[in-house]
Write a structure and sequence with these properties.
single chain; mainly alpha; Globin-like; binds protoporphyrin IX containing FE
């Protein structure tokens, strides 16, 4: 039976499953594997903190996630197609694992952030 996102263990399962999809995705895998050279054992706990602060009132994320993406964009131009695919896989992961208010909120917030990020990257890329 699916349930809502309730604990940090739920968040860990969510981001781990999501990253398995990102790493297997034809369009996005190169950004994570070759460009950013993500080390999952370091990266996943940061993402758990980030989503904890949004969904479960956690207070451990003290970093600037937008800056990470503007830096990444200098090495690999992030375009609308990348954000659309990121959101597609995020929503798919959530729907496979969870159901409920927090699950819906996680989809809603990710889309809002992706829209702002995409707008910002477009703006920066036009200036280059
Ligand atoms: C095209 C879409 C995206 C791509 C390719 C992407 C890629 C990445 C990469 C490679 C990193 C690691 C950067 C580093 O450690 O140097 C990262 C970090 C992160 N991303 Fe994304 N991302 C995307 C969209 C998003 C969205 C929409 C969100 C939020 C809903 C998000 C949230 C985060 C967070 C919280 C981190 C951790 C930042 C930190 O270290 O504090 N990303 N992303």
């Amino acid at each position: 039976m699916k349930h809502d996102i309730q604990t940090r263990d739920d968040l860990f399962l969510l981001v781990k499953t999501f990253y398995e999809k990102l790493f297997a995705d034809e369009l996005l895998q190169t950004i994570f594997i070759d460009v950013a050279k993500i080390k999952l054992e370091e990266h996943l706990p940061i993402l758990v903190d980030f989503w904890d602060s949004i969904l479960l009132d956690g207070d451990t994320y003290r970093r600037n996630q937008m800056e990470k993406h503007t830096e990444l964009n200098k090495k690999f131009r992030l375009e609308k197609q990348h954000f659309d695919q990121w959101i597609f896989l995020w929503n798919q992961t959530i729907d496979e694992l969870f159901i409920g208010e927090k699950a819906e909120h996680a989809k809603f917030r990710a889309k809002s952030i992706a829209d702002i990020m995409s707008y910002k990257m477009d703006y920066l890329n036009k200036e280059l």
